[in-house]
Amino acid sequence: MPSAATPAAGGTPAAAPGGDVAVRVRRSDRRRRTVTAYREDGGVVVCIPARFTAAEEAEWVQRMLARLAARDGRRRLGDDDLEQRAARLAERYLDGRARPTSVRWVDNQRSRWGSTTPADGSIRLSTQLQGLPAWVVDYVLLHELAHLLVPGHGEDFWALLAAYPRSERARGFLEGWSTAEAARTGAPAPAEDADD
């Protein structure tokens, strides 16, 4: 039995194929040609131009669900994988001094790549990073690990990241990727980092 979504502001619930995910369709008068989809609150939001017919909407919902499924198949590193990766990076680049209590993926970070809460040692990475090159994910993980040692973005912080040979390249990649996505979707680009 298909599950229905509660309409969000500007959103219309749609039945999902197989009934395993709630889909909300958001129409926008400002959106002219682009269609985007992302995960939110356990469901999927598909953003389409307001002028789309019901048939176009149905077609694009199917396309975007297929794209998300394909992307999920390519990119799924679990939380355990992230924790292991963080431990290796901390050992290699930070002399094992950064020891997070948890490292996990989160769906609710649409405006930043990662965040750290130094008080409890937790690190969260946006699921938007999934599917990006491993060296980019490693940079964001290392960035967040460094915040367990240095809370701000001063000289001491950047000195810690200097050991990672792809720091500048990864920062450039993330900046370019987020700028391109923002231009394509009209959504704000994620920031490199935010500290709690």
From TrEMBL:
Region annotation Disordered: residue ranges? 1-21
Any signal peptide, and if so, which residues? none
Q: What are the YgjP-like metallopeptidase domain coordinates in residue numbering?
A: 79-164
One Pfam family hit: YgjP-like
Q: What PANTHER family does UniProt report for this protein, alphabetically?
A: UNCHARACTERIZED PROTEIN YGJP (PTHR30399), UTP PYROPHOSPHATASE (PTHR30399:SF1)
Q: State the protein's name.
A: YgjP-like metallopeptidase domain-containing protein
Classification lineage: Bacteria, Bacillati, Actinomycetota, Actinomycetes, Kineosporiales
